[in-house]
Amino acid sequence: MESNTLQKKKATRNAAATHKKRSNMSLILHRLAQDKVAMVALGVLVFLVIISIAAPLIAPYDPYEIDVTAAKQAPSAAHIFGTDSMGRDIFSRILYGGRYSLALGFCGSLFTAVIGTVLGTIIGYYGGAIDNFFMRICDVWQAIPGQLLAIVISTVLGGGFINTVLAMSIGGIPMSIRSTRAMCLKEREMDYLEAAVSYDCSKTKIMFKHMLPNIISPTIVGTTMSVGGTIMGAAGLSFIGLGIQAPTPEWGAMLSDARSMALLYPYMMIFPGLMIAITVLAINLFGDGLRDAMDPKLKN
């Protein structure tokens, strides 16, 4: 009888918690939908993702097709963004390049967030000697400039998509660990964790079922806003000859190919650079809107 009563109370608490989470999510989406700038930015991002995925259907030419007779042609009806030094259609290469640039940004930021959040949650929950040990590692890790570390890793591992994702994400892990740890130290003192301990919840369940959902909102916002920086960092690696290598149509690699002809044929750099700028701006604007929707107190 007593057991049935406890089970009913537990089921009631779970139902209430689920309803609260759904209500909070609905409220966040409602606030986000009212932010016109964030919605426009989201529309731009969705549009870029769609045209990148649908590149084989939209692109008028093969992005790898070389036609020396059409090399270095200015924008025209036949090639709306012009052609590069090998006669490849720049518009087609930009469409396909979005696949690599966007994927690099999202995958790199997601990898950083997952590793940093998991480690930060564990470190913040246990504290003590474990906290001191990992924080000293993070101090040394962060003493190395992020872009320099990315260059070293990319040089050692070589080019390619996976290696570039690793090169761009590893440098950001310490900051992700620190921010998650700071939030966990604050949450660790809350009454609901004491209640979870009194119910004999395992430490893993306390960390990832009770604590993590309460700190995930800032992590989502931070990850979203880091995507733009990751895209720019990956483009920077490609620009100096690391990261994604030619002839792969990645926006940074396209900039690298065109830098020696920037004065004579500026359109070769303008269009890939413009795509990077538009993408990063849209991500940052959407990230601002998402932050305000999740925590309206931060909104000016």
Describe the structure.
By secondary structure, the chain is mainly alpha-helical. 75% of the residues lie in helices and 0% in strands. It is built from twelve helices and no strands. α9 (191-198) crosses α10 (203-239).
Keywords for this entry:
mainly alpha, single chain, 75% helix, 300 residues
Question: Share of helix among residues?
Answer: over 70%
Given the structure, what is the number of helices?
12
The average pLDDT score comes to 85
The proportion of strand residues reads under 5%
How is this fold's topology laid out?
Layout: H1 2-34, H2 36-53, H3 55-58, H4 90-126, H5 128-142, H6 146-157, H7 161-170, H8 173-187, H9 191-198, H10 203-239, H11 251-258, H12 267-294
Helix pairs in contact: 1-12, 2-4, 2-12, 4-7, 4-8, 4-10, 4-12, 5-8, 6-7, 7-10, 8-10, 9-10, 10-11, 10-12, 11-12
